[in-house]
């Protein structure tokens, strides 16, 4: 699937969060002055995904002050997302995309190399959508460790 680039219109979506409540990109944008940080991760509770989610959690107040909402998306079912959110005290929505339709539309599903093998699955990615619904920044194949700090620097949000 093609990946999104700066200036593209971000595809809208509505997916269930960890409590089963539908959440749309439109609603997230409406509640955030500057935009939405949408990050895609392979599996709740794994070491890299936990590191990335906790980094977003620990910097969430800074994101909010800068006018951004944060949302995570994985193929996990809402119940797994809920356990992950509870265990790690994650105060932002974790959305379930089990058929990976949203991930495909956003370029976050496809072939990737893992330990020398080519597989198909979630490509760890982050896309920042501005308040108009356009892509302001897109990063694919990111490393979980240090990603949130690199993202904040790229957006000029160093505290």
UniProtKB/TrEMBL annotation:
Q: Residue span of the signal peptide, if any?
A: none
What is the E.C. number? 1.11.1.24
User: Could you name the domain of life of the organism this protein comes from?
Assistant: Bacteria
Q: Which UniProt keywords apply?
A: Antioxidant, Disulfide bond, Oxidoreductase, Peroxidase, Redox-active center
Q: Please give the function described in this protein's UniProt entry.
A: Thiol-specific peroxidase that catalyzes the reduction of hydrogen peroxide and organic hydroperoxides to water and alcohols, respectively. Plays a role in cell protection against oxidative stress by detoxifying peroxides and as sensor of hydrogen peroxide-mediated signaling events.
> What is the official name of this protein in its record?
thioredoxin-dependent peroxiredoxin
Cited Pfam families:
AhpC-TSA
Entry's Gene Ontology molecular function annotations: peroxidase activity
Q: Does the keyword Cell cycle apply?
A: no
For the Thioredoxin domain, which residue ranges apply?
Answer: 4-159
Q: Which reaction does it catalyse?
A: a hydroperoxide + [thioredoxin]-dithiol = an alcohol + [thioredoxin]-disulfide + H2O
Q: Which family does it belong to?
A: Belongs to the peroxiredoxin family. BCP/PrxQ subfamily.
UniProt keyword Oxidoreductase, yes or no: yes
| CDD domains in the record | PRX_BCP (cd03017)
